[in-house]
Design brief:
alpha/beta; Rossmann fold; 7 helices; Methionyl-tRNA Fmet Formyltransferase, Chain A, domain 2
Length: about 325
């Protein structure tokens, strides 16, 4: 079968029998992180048996635990995709004729039966918001491979990129690991680090992580198919875990450097939350960071200039944009 073109990618058929590659079940979300890994698997000629996406809201008791997601021209009672939505794994799967299922509780017998009937060699996970139960993990002979945007065992949990910026890291990376009963605790099969330039956005880090993770995932799936997948356990002595950030995690203390404040605000901008700088006994809300100086000094703790504020940090000065509903 001739290759199809998917936004610049040469994508081979995903239908069973199209290649001798391992057959995978892909699990992800209708977001930016899940798309590059699915596209990379298809571009590598790896058959994708089906795509699973999470239920958008808690299912009612009478709702089937597995619901096919069929192509629709407009939004319907299943508002996963509209004609104006950003491109997602759902668009890609529809174009390639890959079955898509919306699933609720992953341990439900119907979900497990579906997975068994699909007979995947491996499950590939990219930003699926649920822990896979042991019964599901046991189905594919090669196990389940997850892409995690941090250098495990550091920054386990649901929002690692946020916490990388919060803690002022100068570099981060991507890990592909086998999934177990824990949270991001399975054996590592591939890992790659990259530097964080000053002022890089969280959106850009997410994009880079997804692209690197996609490449590593393809290599891991191919190695699993050849029986050459190597793995190493995570060092629990170096493990850290962080949950979802709270409002307090968007506060900035001026006892830290201006470089950190600038990078953190730029990196966490995609959350759409206001930041609060705690200075001179006040909590001053800001929307974004515009610039910083490593060694400048102000005569006062802060100075307002129009819609901007300059704040003395330790060391350096941050220039930020004040929130429109500010104090």
């Amino acid at each position: 079968m001739a290759n199809d073109s998917i936004r610049g990618l040469d994508v081979k058929s995903s239908k069973p029998g199209a290649s001798d590659s391992p057959r995978v079940l892909f699990m992800g979300m209708a977001g930016a992180f899940s798309l590059p890994p699915l596209a990379a698997l298809l571009a590598a000629g790896i058959p994708v048996a089906a795509v699973l996406v999470p239920a958008l809201r808690p299912l009612m008791p009478e709702t089937p635990p597995v619901r096919p997601v069929r192509p629709v021209p407009v939004a319907s009672d299943l508002p996963l995709v509209t004609p104006f939505a950003e491109r997602t794994i759902i668009h890609l799967a529809w174009e390639q004729g890959i079955p898509i299922y919306q699933v609720g509780r992953l341990g439900d017998p119907a979900v497990l039966t579906l997975a068994r009937n699909l007979a995947p060699t491996a499950i590939c996970v990219a930003c699926f918001p649920a822990i896979l139960p042991p019964a599901l993990l046991a189905i594919p002979p090669a196990g389940a491979l997850n892409i995690h945007p941090s250098l495990l065992p550091a920054y386990r949990g649901p929002a690692p990129i946020f916490w990388v910026f919060r803690h002022g890291e100068r570099r981060t990376g991507v890990t592909v690991h086998l999934m177990d009963a824990g949270i991001d605790s399975g054996d590592i099969v591939a890992q790659e680090a990259f530097e964080l330039p000053v002022g890089i956005s969280g959106t850009e880090v997410n994009r880079r992580s997804a692209e690197i993770g996609a490449r590593l995932l393809v290599e891991a799936v191919q190695a699993a198919g050849n029986g050459n997948l190597t793995r190493r356990p995570q060092d629990e002595r170096e493990a850290t875990y962080f949950s979802w950030p709270t409002a307090a995690d968007f506060e900035l203390a001026t006892t830290r450097p201006a470089r950190w404040a600038f990078n953190f605000i730029r990196g966490a901008d995609e959350w759409g939350r206001q930041f609060e700088i705690v200075v001179a006994g006040q909590h001053i809300p800001v929307e974004t960071a515009r610039d910083w100086s490593p060694d400048a000094r102000l005569a006062t703790p802060f100075r307002v200039e129009g819609d901007e504020i300059l704040v003395q940090f330790s060391p350096g000065v941050l220039r930020a944009v004040l929130a429109t509903d500010r104090w």
